[in-house]
Design goal:
homodimer; alpha+beta; Rossmann fold; Dna Ligase, domain 1; about 30% strand; globular
């Protein structure tokens, strides 16, 4: 714990594991609250490094760097759920890590995650763990085709997934995901995908943002639309599911839950992310208090901020070459542009996002 | 000019002179646009240092540091108008400084400033330059009492000012402001003080935020209220005055103009600030694009952002001990809190602000 403290205001120094755009936006939101942030990331060109004074450029396995980091900061949070076990354990033994180790354990493994959600009484797509090809054959026989084969760990943006349809060779699908420990999920003929962002304070207070509808392309989130076009009862059910999971995890911070909505109105938990989430980027443009600020408030033990929405919004990710339109987007009325300051544009790389606002109509 | 450039997005590195809360908020707004910022300030505890990776901690008279700064960055802007002449001249000879040197020259000296505004055809309080006690006697004889004696340079937050009323000793007032080159201004029995924030792009486009009404206490801005309670014609006149001054200065960036509104509806220019301004802090909470972002857009040569307002707002400065209420304010619904991360609380020191929003009523 750092002895150098401010005499007023929130006096924590927040350590952020991960230096991507989420870490960057967390640090920016923290700064508005007067919090100092220190970013820990292995990549020298980490976007979050540009917006903090103190950085730790080191590998997550570097225990000397982790120990120094633990001395520099008061509380640790993270921008991604794939924090290596050793780093999370090492830091948790020395200081508070929020959201806690439980949230990491649950969300790092798709089998543990779905089992956890099911144990909370929530619907999930039917699934089977797959540890070898024999498991896969058995699982396919029970769940039928199409089905989705996913690595249990380290999947993101559609990576580590393969759909097995009629006529497909299961062994080829298993090879395609690297023959890793996997999960086979029954294919859900969903009508839409939504997500709900729940924030839970250190004191247990729970708030939520309005559920958003998400459109993916090539496994990557392209667009989030708020409000989602779902009946009020579905909204209420989705919000309740977020709360149930956050409370069961004794969670502190923003929790993202992705849900499938079926034609008959059922909600199934697709996945959880124990962090701020791409589908909540619109909140910085359309809410009094963004997901980033509310996460930092929760982590720092402050009261939660208002999640109220003052506009309808459509958030569009700027992926790869999309970002080349930045100047035209900057000139658009009602468009709130956010660029991540990444030096290299690559296919599939998230370079920024834009939230287009439509003022709420009032009676 | 720094050779290390991003391949997409705005590719400038913006140098910011001054490390206070305004520089900090400029850097935070720049980061959202993907701009990298480097802050130059002499004080090691500068609040803006905490939110950028690259800093220059050096005196404004240090030409070695200034030369290195000029090589590190592409464009220079500033958070305060009292940039020492030598630094502004030195940097202007090497790279683009926005808003330009003209804006600094005009706003650094109250006699030059008022003369300039008058030459633009705008009303100003009647005034006389004062260089000695004989000048002061003559000026008092012409302008009458009460009158306000101010230093020509380096005044802020009511410092360097003295009101001379009936019975007061002019020599004592002159001594109180340090017997510096001064200006005597006729006292304006104003009904309210407003300010108008104008932003002018590098391409000459001009936009403005809605005029705000300002309440000072002890010479320090306490509260800004938007919309100002003034007739539509007064709003139009105020906005026009901001535009006239910005265009006459060939200005790039946010220009703040403080105006007196008299009981008979006349508008007189009180002072100008060639920078983002305390009376525009509400824009970060109530507008799509804040004064900070629009200043950075203008400085970086980007299109201007929307200055539209989605809520009525009251901004309150948290000065000195005010900030001790930060936790209660953080818990208020509709209150957007911004703390500057300053370590030491002192009387009269601006520690943060809060903008309380009231959603616009619509027909």
């Amino acid at each position: 714990m750092n002895p150098e403290r401010s005499s007023v205001g929130p006096d924590q120094i927040i350590g952020i594991l991960g230096g991507g755009q989420l870490g960057r936006m967390l640090a920016l939101a923290g700064a508005r609250l007067g919090l100092r942030c220190q970013v820990y990331a292995p990549e020298p060109e980490s976007p979050a490094f540009d917006v903090v004074r103190r950085i730790t450029e080191a590998d997550y396995s570097d225990e000397v760097a982790l120990a120094r980091f633990a001395e520099d900061v008061d509380i640790v949070t993270y921008e991604f759920e794939n924090v290596p076990d050793n780093a999370a354990r090492f830091l948790s033994s020395r200081l508070t890590v929020r959201p806690g180790a439980r949230a990491l354990t649950v969300s790092q493994d798709r089998v543990v995650e779905k089992t956890f959600a099911r144990d909370c009484g929530l619907d999930v797509p039917d699934f089977e763990p797959v540890d070898d090809e024999a498991d896969l054959e058995r699982a396919l026989a029970r769940l039928g085709r199409p089905a989705v084969l996913k690595t249990r760990r380290f999947g993101y943006d559609g990576k580590g997934q393969a759909v097995i349809r009629m006529g497909d060779d299961p062994a080829a699908a298993y090879a395609a995901i690297g023959r890793q420990p996997a999960i086979l999920e029954a294919f859900v003929p969903f009508e839409r995908e939504i997500s709900v962002l729940t924030v839970r304070g250190a004191d247990g207070e729970v708030r939520h943002y309005d559920p958003v509808e998400n459109v993916h392309r090539g496994g990557i989130l392209r667009t989030s639309i708020v409000p989602a076009q779902i009946p009020a009862a579905t909204t209420i059910a989705a919000v309740r599911m977020g709360r149930v999971l956050a409370e069961a995890l004794d969670y502190v911070g923003v929790l993202a839950v992705e849900l499938f909505v079926t034609a008959d109105g059922r909600l199934l938990v697709n996945e959880m992310a124990p962090r701020v989430h791409n589908s909540g980027h619109w909140t910085e443009a359309a809410c009094h208090c963004s997901q980033f600020e509310n996460h930092m408030r929760a982590v720092a033990g402050l009261p939660l901020g208002s999640t109220e929405r003052h506009a309808d919004a459509v958030m569009q990710n700027l992926i790869g070459a999309d970002v080349e339109a930045w100047r035209a987007i900057a000139a658009e009325d009602g468009a709130v542009l956010h660029l991540y300051g990444k030096r290299d544009q690559r296919d599939g790389r998230k370079m920024g996002h834009v939230t287009r606002l439509k003022t709420l109509s009032r009676g």
